[in-house]
Amino acid sequence: MKEISPYMLKKISYNLDHFFNLATNKQIRDGQGWYKNANLEANKIAKKYNLDVLKVSGVISALSPRNKWERNLIDADAVCNSYKNNIGPSFIKVCTFNNNKLKAFGILAGSVKITDKSLKTYNFVNNIAYLDNDFLTVDIWHLRACFNNMININSASIGKKAYKQIKDLTIKKAKKIGLSGFEFQAIIWLSAQKNINN
Fold first, then answer.
1. Residue predicted with more confidence, 70 or 158
2. What is the DSSP letter of 181?
3. DSSP 8-state code for residue 48
4. Which long-range contacts (CB under 8 A, 24 or more apart) does 109-113 make?
5. Mean per-residue pLDDT for 49-69?
6. Which of 50, 63, 81, 144 has a 20 to 30 A CA-CA distance from 194?
7. What is the pLDDT of residue 149?
8. Which residues touch 12 (CB under 8 Å, ≥6 apart)?
């Protein structure tokens, strides 16, 4: 999907409202705090090992697939510790794919760059590192909430223009109710996981 029609954007707007309204008070509180907590943890690791917080956020992102959040932070700390002590990736274990571990070491070494060619990751890393409201993580759960069974999102991919349309719409909706885009997105993420296909 390269571009989203005005009609579909209205449907997406309605769907985002729907999932936000389904969010419990706890999900709203947790969503509002999620990126702030992630930023705090990334900064702790960065300070501990004298590393750039953007690189540490990149490590956290690289180690996130199929990894629980608490374990992700343990793994990120272990990777940063190993990197600072010149211990290679083959000497530590993480709870995600080996390629992701290698990517995390590459990010720290500067041989792997996270750019806007990978929009979801680029936005996620900037949200964590800087709590920057100009970025928005449009992941699979955000897309599922946006399209709410209107299309088969598991096999769909969105282009740069469609990503920007969803990002801009989400940030605008968040601003209207006094939230940052990343807070709104985290609330939708929690609500969608609970309410889609349940």
1. 70
2. H
3. H
4. 109/83, 112/58
5. 96
6. 63
7. 75
8. 4, 146, 147, 166, 169
Which amino acid type is present at position 10? K
Phi and psi angles of residue 76, each rounded to the nearest 5 degrees, phi first: -60, -40
d(CA 118, CA 123): 9
CA distance linking residue 120 with residue 190, whole number of Å: 17
Question: 3-state DSSP call for residue 198?
Answer: coil
In angstroms, the CA 87 to CA 81 distance is 8
In contact, 72 and 66? CB cutoff 8 Å: no
Dist. CA 51–CA 28, nearest whole Å: 32
Distance CA 77, CA 54 (A): 14
Q: Cβ of 137: how many Cβ atoms within 10 Å?
A: 25
Tokens of 31: 């969503």
Dihedral sign computed on CA atoms, order 190, 53, 125, 98? negative
Q: Reply yes or no on whether the pLDDT at 155 is more than 70.
A: no
Do 134 and 174 touch, CB atoms closer than 8 A? no
**For residue 112, what pLDDT is reported?**
97
Is residue 170 within 8 A of residue 181, CB to CB? The reply is yes
- What does the domain layout of the chain look like in residue ranges? 6-195
